[in-house]
């Protein structure tokens, strides 16, 4: 294995452990809610804002450091922190303590993705970046697979607290491996100026002026609103409406989103790498197509009472669930100068996670409670259908971005390799 592929594998594992510690909560919401007697709105708050606010906002200053300091060390330190805080989640005795522990997980996870995307952009040339970013994005599917399986079955055998403890272990080992075996790659562009506070503000202004970046970021954010809202509540959906146990729900979703979705992420990223050689607008068109295919299938899935049909309708949307990620991350890295790449990734992830991860699960919980007076115990399924409106708006923004992206790629704000 070449050195750059070795680094890509470790960074993909970093993304996987990141999602393991982040998403394990989703399959544990029902037992946690029962123990602490929480409403759907409070569960949505716990799974959304508790993590996303700090994860998103702290990504900016950590990205500023990543554009100047050793990215390998930043990634290793962040992995160790969020793994330790995941272990703390298993030791809490109240909702408030669990909320604060999830904040700690968000603080630790804030630094891994921007630095990882910046490293990959330095290691892989333009034509290979969509595929490399897609491999990195597949770490999310792997982590989701691990989180749902570990969370679902360990909860059944030993309780939800033990699930957090088990999930914390792999990250501590991975942090050590990265720190000891990964060299800091040579940067394509030199680090930013020493006055990083002023330079960070200037970088954000520069990035924000790029119209295509704004449109792509908004498109990914609105998709994240739907995707995270649905993904977080999916185990609860199968538990409430199809009588699954936590282990059964975790296994079913893990196989569809984790295994099939991981394959879909890499396949669509590889396809985008090929298509974008002829026209870079495929980085916008492909996410739009994948979302359009999934919308009617997900709607049917949420409304059916037939368990077999619900699982069958989930397969293709699961395959395409992260198809947006590789193309989106790759085109963002092309739209900005080389010494702004971590910052651009962090800004996109900040918006994506504040709107998607922060508001998506919370929106489903609040809508479910609002629908409850007339929908009764069916309110959650209608709330999940409602948040699909975010995907419709997302498609519109990706289409708008496809009309401006070629012009923005040829301005003096971008860099070619």
A few lines on this structure:
With 417 residues, the protein is mainly alpha-helical. The protein has helices spanning 3-36, 40-47, 49-66, 71-89, 95-109, 112-123, 129-158, 160-181, 196-208, 211-242, 246-278, 282-303, 307-319, 325-335, 341-358, 360-375, 379-386, 389-402, 405-409.
The succession of helices and strands, N to C, reads: HHHHHHHHHHHHHHHHHHH
Q: The CATH topology, please?
A: Growth Hormone, Chain: A
CATH level 4 superfamily: MFS general substrate transporter like domains
Number of domains: 1
Query: What percent of the residues sit in helical stretches (DSSP H or I)?
Result: over 70%
Number of helices: 19
Largest sheet: none
> What is the CA-CA span between the terminal residues?
24 Å
Could you say which structural class the secondary elements and strand pairing correspond to?
A: mainly alpha
The first-level CATH class is given as Mainly Alpha
- Using the alpha-carbon principal axes, give the shape: globular
Give the CATH architecture: Up-down Bundle
Q: Which band does the percent of strand residues land in?
A: under 5%
Count the E strands. 0
**Segments where pLDDT lies below 50 for 5+ residues?**
412-417
| Mean pLDDT, all residues | 81
What is the CA-based Rg, rounded?
20 Å
């Amino acid at each position: 294995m070449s050195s750059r592929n070795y680094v890509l594998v470790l960074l993909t594992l970093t993304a996987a452990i990141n999602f393991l510690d982040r998403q394990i909560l989703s399959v544990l919401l029902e037992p946690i809610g029962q123990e602490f007697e929480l409403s759907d709105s409070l569960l949505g708050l716990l799974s959304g804002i508790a993590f996303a606010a700090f994860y998103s906002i702290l990504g900016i200053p950590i990205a500023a450091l990543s554009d100047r300091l050793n990215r390998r060390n930043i990634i290793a330190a962040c992995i160790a922190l969020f793994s330790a805080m995941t272990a703390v989640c298993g030791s809490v005795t109240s909702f408030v303590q669990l909320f604060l522990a999830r904040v700690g997980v968000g603080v630790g996870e804030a630094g891994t993705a921007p630095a990882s995307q910046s490293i990959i952009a330095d290691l892989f040339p333009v034509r290979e970046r969509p595929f490399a970013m897609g491999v990195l994005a597949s770490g999310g599917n792997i982590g989701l697979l691990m989180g749902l399986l570990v969370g679902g079955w360990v909860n059944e055998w030993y309780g939800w607290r033990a699930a957090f403890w088990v999930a914390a272990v792999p990250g501590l080992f991975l942090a050590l491996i990265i720190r000891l075996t990964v060299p800091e790659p040579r940067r394509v562009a030199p680090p930013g100026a020493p006055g990083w506070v002023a330079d960070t503000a200037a970088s954000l202004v520069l990035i924000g002026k790029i119209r295509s970046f704004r449109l792509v970021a908004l498109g990914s954010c609105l998709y994240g609103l739907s995707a995270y809202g649905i993904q977080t509540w999916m185990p609860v959906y199968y538990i409430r409406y199809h009588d699954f146990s936590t282990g059964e729900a975790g296994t079913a979703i893990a196989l569809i989103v984790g295994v099939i979705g991981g394959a879909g992420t890499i396949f669509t990223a590889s396809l985008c790498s090929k298509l974008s050689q002829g026209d870079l607008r495929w980085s916008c068109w492909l996410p739009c197509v994948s979302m359009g295919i999934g919308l009617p299938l997900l709607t049917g899935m949420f409304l059916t009472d037939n368990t077999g049909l619900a699982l069958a309708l989930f397969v293709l949307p699961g395959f395409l669930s992260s198809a947006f990620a590789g193309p989106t991350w790759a085109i963002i890295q092309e739209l900005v100068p080389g010494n702004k790449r971590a910052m651009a990734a962090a800004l996109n992830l900040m918006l994506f996670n504040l709107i998607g991860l922060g508001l998506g699960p919370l929106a489903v919980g609040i809508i479910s409670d609002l629908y409850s007076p007339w929908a009764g115990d069916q309110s959650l399924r209608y709330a999940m259908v409602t948040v699909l409106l975010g995907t419709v708006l997302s498609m519109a923004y990706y289409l708008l971005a496809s009309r401006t992206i070629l012009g923005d790629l040829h301005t003096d704000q971008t860099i070619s390799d």
